[in-house]
Amino acid sequence: MKVGAHLWIGEGLAKVIEFCEYLESNCLQIFLSNPRSWKSKIRKEEEIEKFTQSIKKRKIKPVVIHMPYILNIAVSKVKEKNKIINFLEKQLEESEKINADFYVIHPGFHKGNGEKNGMKNVVDLLKNLPKFNIKILIENTSGQGTSLGYKFEHFSFLFEKIGNDYGICFDTAHAFQAGYNLKEFDKVKKDIEKFIPLSYILLIHANDSKTELNSKKDRHEHIGKGKIGIKGFTQIIKDDYFGNLPFIIETPKVSLKEDKRNIEIIKKIGEKYGKI
Ligand SMILES: [Zn+2]
Q1: Structural domains present in the chain
Q2: CA 128 to centroid of ligand 1, rounded, Å
Q3: Which sign, positive or negative, has the C-alpha torsion 158, 162, 168, 174?
């Protein structure tokens, strides 16, 4: 079973590997730069090389890069779109350089232009993005504000237009907040399959939810302490398809101990159902 966490990048790539070792995790997620800034971080070749050697040696896979929050890929203005495309290009280039496997993007906010127009803008931007080898995953959202991608209808529209070079990152908290009751997981699976093949989903963001079902409020909680609870996570982990995907935890933390605890909970359930 692949279980890891979103890790701090502030102290450099070498530190990320140390975190990973402490957590006894075999996959990871990071930002490449400050997620609330347009500034890119320049890294020395040496730092990158050491990192790629370490992930290979320690069999850490997948390495996931998350897009900075600051980008709204559903913008309509050409100038803004181009700024985002240029930025993403640099991020994807660097992601490939560090041998990352997935690059996770959020489908953005329509900001009053309507969901249909927002989705069309997303398609337009993605179609203009140069091709890279790294797999881009589009993450489902909670439906907070004017966010897109909270319904699987949105994904069927997207994939129809952009083709299936892309994949999906399934965030458990976001799905629950968007109205998918993960405590009745078989029903959720069927609801998803009405719109997309499950095989498009390649990664799980394993977060419990602080807010109620269908709250449209994005607040993550530690595994088992939120509204999805152990019951919900057990169903996901024991599932033949979902339970074999990599799990990345993105819960709020002041210390890595909290990640360690969440990872242990997931692994324990995995052990019980023969995933480890
Ligand atoms: Zn997420």
Answers
A1: 3-272 (3.20.20.150)
A2: 25
A3: negative
